[in-house]
Design a protein that fits this description.
Number of helices: 3
CATH class of one domain: Mainly Beta
Largest sheet: 24 strands, antiparallel, barrel
Length: 807
């Protein structure tokens, strides 16, 4: 999956025996008048007399070893007025090259080659273009601190060939996919990387020291790029989509089967050489994968992953400061108004998502390192159909027309440092309140990136019938490079700080402190290739009035063995604390002492069949409450086109104690047993590197079986509940999803997708004990079925003009 690259660039290491690894490698830029044919065959005349980048450093399994001659890598790069072109020869035995077919932006079980460029040569920002031996493309954007945006996508060309020498690749990356300076002569940051999947061998052209923080700042150099001009970057991606939806509501006046037809467009425009405008007009997100919903017994909101591409691609500026939770826009709004719905009204149809009417992003970075980001999105109002006691049906507006905005200024400083200002604001139509949050952030590193200090100051302002202003700050410093690292972290939020209208938020009113220690060994030993260990100490108090909340310690160790398996162990301990949230009414609860132990096992994923998982155990001091967790995953690759995966998760709790319900304004807790079983199955058939079908099936079951009830006393302790009998407090929750998606990239940047979705959800106040009965019950429950077809066509303005003979 895409997240492999984050780990890849975090843990890479190399030491060179034959060369000086500290010396930056360089390549002379060569302009060409002869264009290569992008077919993966390296016989074009333009590649002759071009300098070769070779002698890659192995980064695993044996860090520092120069690649073997029989498996060497040879790279060449040239350019013209339109694009850069890359030549890659990867020597290997023909039958040893791994080349599993997967969908775009995935790697799978395949060898790959990549080029990473930093056109402004600021050693802080770059773009990576990866191609697997199966011809699958993967691209990503890198920011100044090594963070990766794997959701960034560009339109570029590549082709591969497997032959008796190993395999080869050619790439064409047009300037429309890059941002760069207008200088007549430029130097670009440059690096290449390669992976040999069967032995988990990864190599890098330029030395990257794992004990030095940062990745882009350790790049090579491509010198003397002359007389290139940023092209007009303008593209359109119009789409049309059609949906058929069936849900057996079986209500008078309500159709079981509905259909709709949508149309809209995405626009990308290069305002200048540094800044790009991205706009989506009347977007359609109906084909994204379903959220993995769960039974939430905590007092806090569950955070879901964002799957909508517009809100994941190119958002690294907007994500600074943790103030932007993109699912607030349309998917999970923070504000609902049911004041016009009385207790006698019956809700017939309730919207849970607001329609996104349009969204716009402007982002980029000047030659002086100033990053600027502007984000705006508008969602339509949400209406709820209700029926009163007399049978009259009316519509009630439960969320108004809403405007979401973000403004970011991010100044890059020397030594991979930065200073940032970010503001988010939410404006709602009518009398609903508005929200504004501002933050100043800084990240400072010394010259060798060995020591750091960073932090932020934030202010939230809510304006409506009443106004509220809150404050928060973070201060963190420590040592981030070397085998031994340490850090101190302090986070404060007063009792009025609230960024939830556009950010993810659980609670405020705290002063948290953490000390973190880490030690890593990158040089292989007799039985391991890599070893890491860590220890964290946490302490928390309320900001107002300052009373103690919690304290704990956790630590662990990770090791990657010679056979490419890995294991991780974690130990945790949490002392008795004061919980002000579990009661749901602000009353303190004396949370019990708790400790746990976990073991995680990961296999060598190059094997056709591999499995792994984890075993975890936790115990609460109160009533001897115990929690077990057994997770097992299996992957089976039938061939390079067909693969299956099965995940099984079993999580029983016994004699746990938590909040159960409210009774006459009093908080009632219960001792309960709980079982959670989650099974998911996925399969893929990839026809070519441009066409494939995937399916994901998921069944989640979780219950709560109350055994005894307790009244929460004013001192935070529990007393036996003596009130009237409590009913409806048990829980039995099931959710079932099928996501079947066929995708065909029929032209560069253009896709045809067909999606079938099936979803069912049941939530009962009584429980069904056996898993098979719960599975039968959810399959027999009303199913929401939808079938959709979407066609998106990518149009590059320059290509369009060429086709009409105007240039």
């Amino acid at each position: 999956m895409k997240r492999w690259a984050f780990l890849f660039f975090t843990f890479i290491t190399t030491y060179c025996a034959a060369q000086d690894p500290a010396k930056q490698k360089q390549l002379q830029a060569i302009r060409t008048n002869q264009l290569p044919k992008i077919d993966g065959v390296l016989d074009d005349a333009c590649w002759e007399q071009v300098p070769v980048a070779t002698d890659f450093f192995e980064i695993r399994p044996v860090p520092g070893r120069v690649e073997k001659k029989e498996r060497r890598t040879e790279m060449k790069i040239i350019y013209d007025d339109v694009a850069i072109y890359v030549y890659a020869r990867m020597y290997d035995a023909r039958d040893s090259v791994s080349h599993e077919l997967v969908s775009r932006d995935n790697i799978g079980n395949a060898d790959f080659i990549s080029v990473i460029v930093d056109p402004f040569y600021d050693k802080m920002n770059g773009n990576g273009f990866f191609v697997t031996a199966a011809g699958v493309q993967f691209d990503a954007k890198y920011s100044q601190v090594g963070d990766e945006d794997p959701n960034w996508n560009a339109v570029w060309e590549s082709a591969v060939k497997i032959d008796d020498l190993g395999w080869s690749c050619e790439m064409k990356v047009p300037y429309s996919a890059l941002r760069f300076s207008t200088k007549d002569v430029q130097n670009w940051g440059l690096n290449f990387s390669r992976r040999i999947q069967r032995s988990n061998t990864q190599t890098f052209w330029n030395y990257v020291n794992p004990t030095v923080n940062g990745f882009i700042n350790q790049e090579g150099l491509w010198t003397g790029v002359k007389d290139i001009k940023p092209p007009l970057r303008l593209s359109f991606s119009p789409y049309v989509s059609a949906y058929i939806n069936h849900y057996p509501a079986n209500l008078p006046g309500v159709k079981n089967t509905t259909s709709r037809f949508n149309g809209g467009m995405d626009v990308k425009y290069g305002i200048n050489n540094s800044f790009t405008l991205d706009m989506t007009l009347v977007p359609d997100f109906g084909q994204v994968q379903s959220d993995n919903r769960i039974l939430n017994l905590t007092p806090f909101e569950v955070k879901f992953n964002e799957n909508r591409q517009f809100f994941t691609e190119g958002t690294e500026l907007f994500n600074k400061g943790d103030l932007f939770y993109s699912k607030r826009i349309g998917s999970i709004p923070s504000y609902y108004n049911y004041s016009e719905v009385s207790g006698s009204d019956k809700i017939i149809k309730d919207q849970t998502e607001a329609k996104v009417l349009n969204a716009t992003k402007i982002s980029g970075r000047t030659a002086r390192g100033l990053g600027i980001g502007i984000f705006n999105a508008i969602t339509n109002s949400m209406k709820t159909e209700v029926e009163d006691a007399n049978g009259n049906v009316r519509e009630v507006e439960t969320q108004p027309l809403t405007n979401y905005n973000i403004l970011v200024f991010d100044q890059s400083l020397k030594n991979n440092s930065s200073a940032t200002f970010i503001n988010t604001n939410v404006l709602r139509q009518g009398s609903a309140y508005d929200a504004n949050v501002s933050a100043l952030l800084f990240n400072l590193n010394n010259k060798g990136n060995k020591y750091f200090v960073n932090g932020n100051g934030k202010m939230s302002y809510l304006r409506g019938a009443e106004t509220s202003t809150g404050y928060s700050y973070t201060l963190r410093f420590g040592k981030q490079s070397g085998n031994f690292t340490w850090s101190y972290n302090q986070v404060y939020a007063d009792d009025k700080f609230d960024p939830s209208d556009m950010g993810f938020f659980t609670n405020n009113n705290f002063l948290d402190q953490r000390i973190g220690l880490g030690y890593s060994v990158y040089k292989p030993g007799k039985w391991y290739n890599e070893w890491q260990s860590w220890l964290n100490i946490n302490y928390s108090r309320r900001a107002i009035p300052g009373d103690f909340q919690s304290a704990g310690v956790n630590g662990g160790s990770y090791v990657r063995f010679k056979n490419l398996w890995s294991a991780e162990t974690d130990l945790s301990y949490e002392a008795k604390g004061k919980d002000f949230y579990e009661s749901r009414n602000g009353q303190v609860y004396n949370s019990p002492e708790r400790y746990g132990i976990s073991l995680y096992i990961n296999p060598n994923r190059a094997k056709a069949y591999n499995f792994g998982g984890n075993i975890r155990f936790f115990e609460q001091q109160l009533f001897g409450g115990k929690e077990y967790n057994l997770y097992l995953f299996q992957n089976f690759r039938l061939n390079d086109k067909v693969a299956f995966g099965l995940d099984l998760n079993y999580n029983p709790n016994f004699d746990y104690v938590n909040w159960a319900t409210m009774q006459g304004g009093q908080s009632i807790f219960s001792r309960y047993d709980r079982r959670t079983v989650e099974n998911s199955f996925d399969a893929k058939y990839t026809f070519t590197n441009l066409m494939g079908v995937t399916v994901v099936l998921r069944h989640y079951w979780s219950d709560r079986r109350n055994k005894d009830f307790f009244l929460l006393k004013q001192d935070g302790n529990l007393a036996d509940y003596q009130g009237p009998a409590l009913t409806g407090t048990d829980r039995n929750y099931n959710v079932f999803n099928i996501d079947l998606i066929y995708t065909w990239q029929f032209a560069p940047g253009s896709t045809l997708s067909v999606s079938y979705k099936d979803a069912a959800e049941t939530y009962d106040t009584y429980y069904t004990q056996r898993y098979n009965k719960n599975l039968d019950g959810i399959l027999a429950a009303p199913q929401n079925n939808s079938l959709s077809v979407k066609v998106l066509y990518y149009v590059d303005y320059l290509d369009l003009k060429k086709k009409h003979g105007k240039i």
